Amino acid sequence: MPRSVIDAIRQGDWNYEPGKDEPVNLKETTALPGTMEKLDILAERLSKGLPLWHPRDRLTYEEESE
Fold first, then answer.
1. What is the pLDDT of residues 14-59, one digit of tens each?
2. Which one of 12, 32, 33, 52 is least enclosed by Cβ atoms within 10 Å?
3. What is the pTM (predicted TM-score) of this model?
């Protein structure tokens, strides 16, 4: 069982998502989807072996940023 996104990729599991019971140890982002800011955040998470998605990440352009 992979412990991180990086471990999963090394094992060839491109669909890995952390279990729902695993703690989310990252801060959500209000960066707009598709922007360089959002891509940079996702790249940083990946490089640290963290989950790519936070449940409270901004998902649409319609959502208000705080």
1. 887 766 545 557 789 999 988 999 999 999 988 887 888 888 899 8
2. 12
3. 0.62
